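LOG
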Amino acid sequence: LLAFHIQKDKEIFKKYHLKSIKNIETLNSKFEIPVIVEERLKYANSVWFNLDVQFRVRLFIDKQIRKYFERKPLRGQSIIGEDKDGSIEIEIKISNNMEILPLILYYIPYIKVLEPQSLADEIKDRVQGYLKEI
């Protein structure tokens, strides 16, 4: 469940897990969904999205997993390049690393972060941390 919590001229965007909501009350009040919320929901790839900031992510997709990104593209995904070997480069907009991070970890070693460097570094740190523990 997505909701706005309005406090003295400040709107806070909140996300709730439906299973954990209790004591629901039905009210007679109505509301309109702001245009920015509608627009961001069109491109959200997970509940981790944020209304405030978006940034571009460029990913290298190896030919072995290319078909998965063509069959079911991520929301807002664009194929921006194709190599002779069949691999592709895609670009998406996200607002939180967690929107894409689990997917990248799932497809290692067939996917690589090209940009932003901060996301590539986070992936590298997580993988190195994991390897140290096993």
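LOG (cont.) second protein
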Amino acid sequence: MELKHVNATVKTPATAFTGDVYMTPIYNGAGPSRMAVALVRFTPGAYTNWHSHAVGQTLHVTDGVALVGTRDGAVVRARAGDTVICPPGEDHWHGAAEDTFMSHLAMLEAKPDGGDPTTWLEPVTDEQYKAANETSGS
């Protein structure tokens, strides 16, 4: 057994996020585990760029209301206690609804070759984010 003390929280880079987003690393697997877990906190109206994960990503909402969108325009509105599973290779984005903070546990696996499991893409447009807030449901 090993006790891991809380890691420092960092502000996420503006190159991959719109608005203020903070991340606290929780766990980065050491072989044979490839699991990575982080607590990510979004201020109201903050969200990620489009991105995908080689081995998929699981988002467990711990506070607030999350929006998770895909290229086909589908948007899920997830609340505290809900879990959203993003399959491998699916372009998606996620963030807080425009009127609430949101926190989630982001869980993913590193690629088997040890490479970066996340491919960052272009920013979500203001129009896409606005439409997600207006039309999302679950």
